[in-house]
Amino acid sequence: MDMLKKGTVSELPDDVLDAALDESLAFTFQRRFGGKDASDMNKFAADTIKYIHNYGLTTIIPFPRYLASQAKFISDYTGLTILRRGIKDTTTEESAKFMTGALMFGGLYMTQKENIAKGLEWFEVEGEDGKVYDGQAAFGPLSAHVYAANYSCTTYGRCAC
After folding, report:
1. Where residue 69 falls among pLDDT bands split at 50, 70, 90?
2. CA dihedral 57, 61, 65, 69 (to 10 degrees)
3. pTM of structure
4. What's the 3-state SS for the chain?
5. How far apart are CA 105 and CA 107, in angstroms?
6. Residues 6 or more apart from 122 whose CB is under 8 A from it?
7. Of 117, 108, 110, 100, whose CA–CA distance to 143 is shortest?
8. Within 13 Å, how many C-alpha atoms sit on residue 146's CB side?
9. What pLDDT digit, counting tens, does each position of 27-67 carry?
């Protein structure tokens, strides 16, 4: 922030700016796919996004980069990335994302256990006002975790169903 005040942002190294941009794009589910060091899966996502844009398929599949970013989020936070690459090739960041996802899943499992006891569907949330709302839009890419937690609870758990 100090560099903004001083007007010296142009002195920041390119790798710092690129990392900041990539992080902001990932946070908003607008990450860039492809590039020279990208994995085959990442390059395939970039090619698919380009194809969708170039052939006007955005009328059928709007916001393909957003959808691909959500798929990356789901892969990272459910452990699919680790399964795909293998434990030996996993980075510390990938492991941390998986552990974060596992903790989120645990909390969601307990929440779904309570919701099932109240007769709510997997996507329903009870507001502070006592009304039931459809929470799918708020869940975003976390919907996969919410659904899996509900499924696990109803199938394998000891829920008061």
Report:
1. confident
2. -150
3. 0.69
4. CHHHHHCCHHHCCHHHHHHHHHHHHHHCCCCCCCCCCCCHHHHHHHHHHHHHHHCCHHHCCCCHHHHHHHHHHHHHHHCHHHHHHCHHHCCHHHHHHHHHHHHHHHHHHHHHHHHHHCCCCCCEEECCCCCEEECHHHHHHHHHHHHHHHHHHHHCCCCCC
5. 5
6. 112, 115, 146, 147, 149, 150, 151
7. 108
8. 19
9. 777 778 887 777 788 888 889 999 998 998 998 988 888 88
Dig out the tokens for 12 from the structure: 């920041």
Tell me how far CA of residue 34 lies from CA of 20, 42, 46, in angstroms: 17, 6, 5
For residues 87 and 90, what is the distance between their CA atoms, to the nearest angstrom?
5
The CA-atom distances, in angstroms, between 83 and each of 21, 77, 130 are 28, 12, 41
